[in-house]
């Protein structure tokens, strides 16, 4: 990232056309109302499902004493995982100096903010006593990984929100006079949120400095959140979780899920808002290459994680491996590994599959597989406690998620989509000033 | 209307006055009688009180906590209701100077399941909610199966306590691991962490939620049980406070359980009430712990299932269908 901003772009005519392109979809349209109405009504049904759970207790889920963590925890891990992509794209790739991430950075931050914000709620949905949530802060004991997780997820959310908001400020100032077609309250919001931005070089200097600090800070924070999330499992003695590579294993898996989510969102932003000038085939091509890279790294960790116990076949590990490879979870396991990892790697190596539509399809499959992968990490391990399960009701031997449980999980996904929709619809989704600056810079260079 | 009233009033002026007079005098008399009665009653009552408080009249001998024998009037005795804060405080501190320990003789267990019933009765649990469960174990194909009662191991390095985010589950000075149902947030991290599957969660309203309503919560008994929280074996710490053996230990008909204090190096068999030297018992019978390789340092020891004098019946499957 450059340390100074050339403010010449403010006087360039290109700014007008770029701002017009990017701001066109901002505001309330009929499609938006229908979409939000649909999301809202569906969410109400899910909230009712949660009310039932709150009233009756977790008995309404498929969870019982042996498999006591299920869909909710898998969903939590998935949410934390997906949110990590904000760090990967704007921070790691941005700091290295890749220019192509500029129009994607805000999309990645929106995903980071939305998923990290709802991850906390997902955990609350798993709690037997949600009303005692304040106890975590009142009586928190520092040696519990849950306390570490609460601390770092909150920190990550705050830094991600700042990383979304800070580069948005100049855009809000640019947009103020250009969103006449939107409701008055939105214009007033722009006025307040643009915090009297005057586009002075001094202001840009401070902004870049702040961004730089945050972009560096978020790297260890992001590593921490997913490493600590993996430790929720790895600190236990159970075969299948008792692994020393869980931290990097989770982290690399997170980048796969997150990159897929970014591709999906890029595609919808591009087609719905006609922004193919900014989200070009080149960007999809690069995202495809990124997805291959992170998938190969993840595959490497998968081989480590499954091959070594499978080679040794220690008694307890053997049950677990058997269940995954040929037993009860075999279909899910091989679907996830093949469709979600191996086949996408092979396909994406070819340029033709890195075209927007084909990479969209691949990413959707990868993202769904990523969710089930979390399920496979969380659930089967609990199916094999050290001591036998005896003299308990038959239903306790198996975990079958219930409708209510599924509805609550869908509800949290809906909340994520609602946050994404609101941010996309009310604020410029591609950084206007960065696009304009880049174009002006390019023009100046070519004139020379 | 008001006009009408006034005219009627004027017409019946005289009789009304007479009425008023008689009513007034009636009240006057009544007041006098009332005052006299009250004074008399008070006098009688104070006399009665005086009589009652005289020594020797319906007194009860009571032993105080500092070992003095005193007399108090029977009607002045109040039930001491142990208050909530005291129960919590003593429950978290534990019994000073003790290190409780359990020894389970697998050679004697016939799966009578009396321990389980006694435990579930005391802790208000359903038939499939176990603080202690008897498992059918078989180490490998060619070794003999045996019954293994499995309570919480009350580990000295408890993985459950390490992961609890709110100090709801904790280790006491007497070695017992307890759970505070008023603190537990229901995250179930401890269930995930426990390698002995010793913990259970109240997925629904506990069995006796209705009848236990309003009872003072006893952290050493986990009663009243609470929905959405964890419960587990407490080594019957409420009984230990009274100097009694745990529910399961006393209920066993087959002499399976020994319970005692590591500091005193003594354990007592719950059935025969005979006391043994702990170190001797473990040495002679080659006592062992469950999965010591995990580093949890359990406080429950097992004596191997050797020289059994009864036939083994594998009733695992039957038990499943019965209770599902």
SSE blueprint and pairings:
The complex is a heterodimer of chains A (448) and B (324).
Chain A: H1 14-23, H2 30-56, H3 71-83, H4 85-96, H5 102-126, H6 135-138, H7 145-165, H8 168-175, H9 184-193, H10 201-234, H11 246-273, H12 281-312, H13 315-325, H14 330-348, H15 356-382, H16 403-426, H17 432-447
Helix pairs in contact in A: 1-17, 2-16, 3-5, 3-11, 3-15, 4-5, 4-10, 5-7, 5-11, 5-16, 7-10, 10-11, 11-12, 11-15, 12-13, 12-14, 13-14, 14-15
Chain B: H1 2-11, H2 13-53, E1 59-63, E2 69-73, H3 84-93, E3 100-105, H4 114-123, E4 133-137, E5 146-150, H5 159-163, E6 169-171, E7 177-179, H6 189-193, E8 199-201, E9 230-232, H7 237-241, H8 247-251, E10 257-261, E11 266-269, E12 275-277, H9 278-284, E13 300-303, H10 316-323
Parallel strand pairs in B: 3-13
Antiparallel strand pairs in B: 1-2, 3-10, 4-5, 6-7, 8-9, 10-11, 11-12
Commentary on this structure:
The complex is a heterodimer of chains A (448) and B (324). By secondary structure, chain A is mainly α. Chain A has a single domain (7-441), classed as Formate dehydrogenase/DMSO reductase fold. Chain A has 17 helices and no strands. The mean pLDDT of chain A is 93. With 324 residues, chain B is of the alpha+beta class. Chain B has two domains: 2-53; 91-323, Alpha-Beta Plaits (2-Layer Sandwich). Helix content of chain B is 33%, strand content 17%. Chain B is built from ten helices and 13 strands. Chain B has helices spanning 2-11, 13-53, 84-93, 114-123, 159-163, 189-193, 237-241, 247-251, 278-284, 316-323; strands at 59-63, 69-73, 100-105, 133-137, 146-150, 169-171, 177-179, 199-201, 230-232, 257-261, 266-269, 275-277, 300-303. In chain B, a hairpin with a 5-residue loop joins strand 6 (169-171) and strand 7. Chain B is elongated and about 110 Å long.
Mean pLDDT of chain A: 93
Shape, per Cα inertia axes of chain B:
elongated
Helix content of chain B: 25-40%
Q: How many beta-strand runs of chain A?
A: 0
Number of helices of chain A: 17
- Portion of residues in beta strands of chain A equals under 5%
CATH architecture of the largest domain in chain B: 2-Layer Sandwich
Strand order of the largest sheet of chain B: 12-11-10-3-13
Give me the Rg of chain A, rounded. Answer: 23 Å
Shape of chain A: globular
CATH architecture classification of chain A:
Up-down Bundle
Q: How many H/I helices of chain B? A: 10
